[in-house]
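Reminder: ligand-aware prediction takes two inputs, not one.
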Amino acid sequence: MTLSVKDILSQKPIGTTIELKGWVRTFRSNRFIAISDGSTIKTVQAVIDFENVAEETLKKISTGAAIQVKGDLLSSLGKGQDVEIQVTEITVLGESNPEEYPLQPKKHSLEFLREIAHLRMRTNTFGAIMRVRHSLAFAVHHYFNSKQFFYLHTPIITGSDAEGAGEMFNVSILDKKNPPLKDDGSIDYSKDFFEKETNLTVSGQLEAELGAMALSKVYTFGPTFRAENSNTSRHLAEFWMIEPEVAFADLNDNMDLAEDFLKYVIRYTLEHCADDLEFLEKRLLDEEKSKPEKDRSPQALREKLQFVADNNFRRVSYTEAIDILRNSKPNKKKKFKYLIEEWGADLQSEHEKFLVQHFNAPVILFDYPATIKAFYMRLNEDEKTVRAMDILFPGIGEIVGGSQREERHDVLLGKMNDFDIDQKELQWYLDTRKFGTCVHSGFGLGFERLVLFATGMGNIRDVIPFPRTPGNAEF
Ligand code: ATP
Ligand code: MN
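Here is what comes back for the chain with adenosine-5'-triphosphate:
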C-alpha cells in the first residue's frame, strides 16, 4: 500500500506493510531517515538495518535524495514521533550530491532562498507557505460556490488601456528592430497580431461587470500584471487577484460580502492548516526576537488570525479618517513622510497602518474623494465623493479595493469625459448601462496580500512560488 506522509501520520495503520516515496530530510547514525513528501510539514522516520543494506545504496542516502522505502509500520519508542517504518526494502530513486546540494539542514536566510527559488519549496518554511496558499485558494472557490457565484474567466490579454489601475505590459509580435510605422512616426499596431495595441490586464473588473449583468453573481481569480516600478515588499509585477462582482448590491452589501468572505477564508485556513500555521507562528516569533520590542507584533500569528475572524471590521468614512489623521500625533510631530493637511489627500501606506493601529481592528474606509478614485465608481449625492471602499489589514495596509459602480449612463459618460477616456474604446462597457442597468458592486482582493497576512511573512516575494518584480523574472 503506497501512502503519503500525511496518510501515514493521520491513519497510523500500525502492523501493516506500507510503501512510501519522498525525499531525505536528514539521515542520522546510518540508521534513521526522516522522509518528507510535502503532503504535510511533518516527516516520517524510516529505520534501516544498515548491516542488511548494500554499501553503495547506503552511500547514496543523503539529504535531498529521492527514495522509496517498504516496510512495516510500528509504534515508535523514539522521541518526536508516534510511528516509524521498519524498512525491509529501500531504493534510491534519485541521488543528490551532498557537496553541491544548497539546502543543508540548517537555517537559511529568506534572501538566499529567493535566489534558489527552484529548491526553496523543499524547506519547512516554503512548504508551509505553499500549503497555506493552496488552502486559501481552495477556500476562495469554496466560499463563492456556496454563495451561488459563478467563476468567470476574464481575458489576460486586453485591448483596452482604460482600466486605469496602473502601468501595463505591452503584448506585441511586431519586429522590435524595425516595427511598421504610421505617417506620424508612431508604431502601427494595426499590423500587429490583434490588429490593435494590446496589453496584459491589470484587472478583470470591467469584464466581470459584464458577467454580473447576466449571471448576477460572478468572481474572477486570475493573474494580473502591473508594470509599476514600485520595488516594495507589497507589490509584484505579476500577482493573482480575486474580483467578485454582484448585481443588485450596493456599497453596504459589498462591505458585508468582503468582510464575511475574508473571515471565512481565514477561519478555513486556521482549521485546515494547523500544523503549518503553528510552524509559521514559531518562525515569526524567532524572527521577531531580533527586532526592537516596539516593532514586534503584539499577537502571535494564530491569535491575530483568530482575532480578525471573530471581530467586526471598523467602517469609517474617508472624511472621518482624514480628521483622525490630521489630529494624530505622527502628523502633528511631522513623523509621517506625507503630512495630511487637507481633505482630498490620497492616503499612503503609513496612514493606512496608523488607522489600523488606531482602531485596533481591520478598517473599511469608504466614500473617498472622486478625484483620487477610478472613473467607474458611483458618485454620491454630494457630487464630491464616490462609493469606494478600501479594506486595511494589520501589518499589510490595503488588502482590498472596491466600490459600488456607476450605473447611470449619463453620469458615467460625464466621468469618462472628465478622465479623458475614449467612449469608443469602452462602448461595450457603456452598453450595460443602456440595456437593463442596475445598482451593482464589487471589489478586488490581492491574493498575495492575503497570503502575506495569513502566513505572517514580511515580503510578498516569499508568498508566491516564483515572484516577478522589477529586474527579476528568474525561473
Ligand atoms: P496599492 O495602493 O497598494 O498599490 P492599488 O490601489 O493600486 O494598490 P487596486 O488597483 O485597488 O490596488 O487593486 C486591488 C488590490 O490588488 C489591492 O487592494 C491589493 O490587494 C492588490 N494589489 C494591487 N497592486 C498590487 C501589486 N502590484 N502586487 C500585489 N498586489 C497588488
Ligand atoms: Mn486600491
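Residues 165-166, 226, 235-236, 239, 241, 398-401, 444-446, 448-449 surround adenosine-5'-triphosphate (ligand 1) (CB under 6 Å). The chain has a mean pLDDT of 95. We will return to this case in the review session.
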